[in-house]
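Protein folding task:
====================
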Amino acid sequence: MDRRSFLSASLMSGVVLADTASGASLRVATNRIIDCQSHLFLSDVLNMMRRRKVEPLVYDQGGTVYLKMGDWLRKVPPSYLDIDAKLAAMDANGIEITLLSNNDPGPEWFGDDGPAVAQLIHDSLAAVMARHPSRFRGLCTLPLQDEKASAAELDRCVNKLGFKGILLYTNLAGAWCDEPQFRWLYARAEELGVPILLHPAKPLTTEQVKGYELTSTLGNMFENTIAIARIIASGLLDKHPRLKLVCPHLGGTLPYICGRMDHQLAVLKRGPQNLERKPSEYLRAIYMDIVSPLPEALRFALDFSGEDRLLFSSDHPWVQPQEILDPLRSLKLATTTEAKILSTNARSLFQI
């Protein structure tokens, strides 16, 4: 048995291994971790974008693959397409199951081609899931510029392909995800009982934060903050009380400033006055994933949201799982609390 097969077998039995090659111990969680946010660039999708004459598009230069969306240019290393590299990262960190999604851009950026792009993405993800049925589940991304096509694709993903939820970008080609044309999605997700996991897209604040390459550092976190604040203020969570909503990256900055939002609405009477609860109460009911390498931030999230509302995610390949697991474990939480964050909450939420 090779080392990775041994790791996989040991993972399923929930043991602690010793890495005899390095002498370092390799901790494998007995609760078998579920990763709720992990991404893969798909070869068929990249090849489709190589053939495009308008953005978003992909091109090769000097042996490097680039994804271009306006002045937002990103490198796509080969490892970001490598399913074996992802499995190796999972095995090395005790991750049993990963909820997998395509990397952005989402189908909303492709105009009339959006429905076909969504089908290509989901068929490609389904093929990965079929090759590794015990390791991967899917999150779908929808061509939300076309409501009829989106509704049909959502039903196909959930009822035929077995996808477990929806990855919803914080903005959809420049429109915030709470805007009226998208609200049918929240009703349908509630009806189907599938979670919506928000995820930052090309930030609407890109121009303001691109200096010093702060787009990912600040722009993505502002996207999370603004999107979830708008969803709360819109009243969607009153209209859809059974909606399962996940905000990534510890909720952006909103948990740290939601007291101000409470004060603005409840005391100063600014903003919508028809909400049934304070904004902070809605936020405490929303799930958050723990993609943050700062133990103090994780501790605050635990104090704010409670152990039943936190989910492990790696954000791989942009982040390595150990960079999230080490800060979490440095908190030395109770075994039951850690188990909820690493596995139990996700199993219940995503019906795994």
About this structure: The first strand starts at residue 17 and ends at 18. Residues 1-30 form one domain.
